[in-house]
Write a structure and sequence with these properties.
Elements: H1 2-17, E1 32-39, E2 48-52, E3 62-72, E4 75-80, E5 83-86, E6 92-100, E7 104-111, H2 119-122, E8 125-132, H3 135-138, H4 150-156, E9 165-167
Parallel strand pairs: 1-9
Antiparallel strand pairs: 1-8, 2-7, 3-4, 3-8, 5-6, 6-7
Length: 168
């Protein structure tokens, strides 16, 4: 009986000592935020910009892209992409959209006659790219953030955006 209890104790000790609270799924990825500024959408660049990522991201990571749409009382207002703009009659004018791979993010405008879109929407644009590790959506530690609210995402995933990494 002593041998069986000792065996259970050893097995239990090994099982519990191998458990870890560090369940980030993909090694050492953390939430990050990058900023790309001075983006100009023109016919010369096919109304798109390519943002290279170094290091690459994991396929399970979630990429969120926000556009600086305004500044109110000194506070930046970020809008989640895709973001669609309409004419007064309700028909679609253009959208900001993006796609991504593990190496880069392609931010682009989509619509008809993009060259006629007001330059305020095409020139000197600022984007924030938030990388949320896929582990956050699988760990069950908490429900996912409301992705449309930049500030909620930053708070939910404990991202320090006081020192945003600037990309070209």
């Amino acid at each position: 009986m002593k041998k069986i209890l000792t065996l259970f104790a050893v097995v239990g000790l090994l099982a519990f000592s191998s458990c870890s609270d560090d369940n980030n799924g993909d090694g050492n990825t953390i939430s990050e935020v990058f900023e790309v500024s001075g983006v100009n959408f023109t016919s010369a660049n096919s109304f798109r910009t390519l943002v290279n990522l170094n290091p690459v991201i994991y396929e399970s990571d979630v990429i969120l892209v926000y556009r600086l749409s305004a500044v109110e009382n000194g506070t930046d207002i970020w809008k989640l992409l895709p973001d669609t703009y309409f004419f007064a009659d309700g028909t679609r004018n253009f959208s900001y959209e993006f796609d991504f791979g593990i190496n880069d993010i392609n931010i682009f405008m989509d619509g008809n006659n993009l060259g006629t879109v007001d330059p305020a929407f095409r020139t000197n644009q600022v984007f924030r790219i938030v990388i949320v590790p896929g582990a956050f959506s699988t760990t069950g530690k908490s429900a996912k953030a409301n992705y449309s609210d930049y500030n909620e995402v930053i708070a939910k995933y404990n991202i320090d955006d006081s020192n945003v990494k600037k990309l070209n």
